[in-house]
Amino acid sequence: MSTIIIDGKKISQDIKDELKKEVEELNKKEIYPGLAVVLVGNNPASKVYVSNKKKACEYIGIRSFSYELPEETSEEELLNLIDVLNKDEKVNGILVQLPLPKHINEKKILLAINPKKDVDCFHPYNVGLITIGDLDGFLPCTPAGIIELIKRTNIDIEGKKCVVVGRSNIVGKPVSLLLLSNNGTVEICHSRTKNLSGICKEADILVAAIGKPKFITADMIKEGAVLIDVGINRLENGKLCGDIDFENCKEKAKAITPVPGGVGPMTIAMLMKNCVKAALMQN
Ligand code: NDP
Predict the structure, then answer these.
(1) Is position 21 annotated as part of the catalytic site?
(2) Which of 42, 154, 166, 213 has the fewest CB atoms inside 10 Å of its own CB, making it the most exposed?
């Protein structure tokens, strides 16, 4: 049987189209989802991310309120803005693009966002809900995108041996919790893991969130495994590649996500989903 190449571009587009319809229905009830996007400084990558998020809002019909602040903005000024946005009824979601300039304490800023408007799902309150298995609120965007990719490819998670390589707070840890909530049997690996290769080889579903190009090689995977590649690495020739050696692993896999065009596009789609959810929860 030929390998399924999981098309994140198509699946994320489907989700955006579903959300667009949902927003049209909400508008009929005079509910207008709104997202505040806050960017501090001139990080070029952050500017691209922010611009893509605003474009997605426009496509779906979510109102976006943009705040582009200079690099020298003080922590206090940013906290004041968040306070204003927390109280603004037109704003259902608040997104502060990371990383912030070094003189601003990121943790303090993320804690200041009202958890009900925390569409990135970074606030400890929302992370706590995920940890106790309550998935009714916001879901962390990239991890939730991974679950959608798996489910919309008709792959069952229940009972499967899931191995996650990477334990970051943005990807590794939360995706492990979501796989667990979906009844997967989860093992989390990291840079101190012994026998990584042997553990990966047992995985029915392998999620790689490492940040090292082509780190997972064909000899590390099981025949028929589902491979989810979160990594985004830029090679010397300028091309993007994932953490999984796509060309060599794809023959052996049951399904695999490409880079680009796999997990990447899902993150914004799931952010948009959280914005619509925020509007619903607040109305
Ligand atoms: P981090 O650098 O925060 O985490 C990397 C993880 O990989 C760490 O837990 C680290 O272990 C582990 N690791 C590093 N080297 C090894 C090794 N040799 N063996 C086993 N484990 C190892 O990265 P992120 O989680 O933020 O991101 C991972 C990748 O995903 C990056 O390429 C990033 O660009 C991409 N990404 C993509 C997104 C998307 O939308 N598609 C969103 C977010 C990230 P330890 O904890 O021990 O150091």
Answers:
(1) no
(2) 154
